[in-house]
Amino acid sequence: MENKPLQSNVFSDSVMKNLQGLTNMSMEFYGTMLDNMTGNSNQFSKNAGQLGKNVLQPLKTMFNTGDCCPPQEECPPHCLTSMHRTAMKGERIIIPFYVKNDCNAPKKYRVGARPLIDQDGNDAGVQLNLNKNAVQLAPFGKERVLLHLDTGKLENGTYTSEIVLREKEYNQNICLTVEIADHPGITVTPHEEKKYKLRWQSWKSHYYCEPIRDQDQDR
Is 0.85 topped by the overall pTM? Predict the structure, then answer.
């Protein structure tokens, strides 16, 4: 029996290709099953395994619409991502970041900040302030959080901390590095004021000169 290619105005070509493969493999599988009811059971087992490998795994990938799970074959990273900010002593800085829900179900995460630590592992004595302590996210939605830091009490150096996201049982961290350093600044050189009084003489001269003084002003 000849199998005609499946067509649809709703699903993409790749989806229909996988469905076509499922149909073809199902026909072959059940045809072989009937042929082997009284035959070789090893061939039956081989065909069943081939069905799972070639059809079921592509279908699992095809319908996987979210990527909200940690890696399956390795430990989740300590930091989901990292943020770095350079500021001058005395600045009040705001560091924005977004929390995104990649799952197809609503999620609520608590948001907190660990103490700011200097290079020697000591508490810097400066509080990290967040503008919200929780985010409620719709499926595939995201929300912005603002981190406020007053660097007035910090000396030049590098400081680290972690922003903690927690849904239920596990902490998930954003690593933060703040570097306090003097800014080099720009250099500006003002013009002499008399240059603002220079006028264009004519199109032939191609240079500037000082305007003629009014003789009445000299009396």
Answer: no
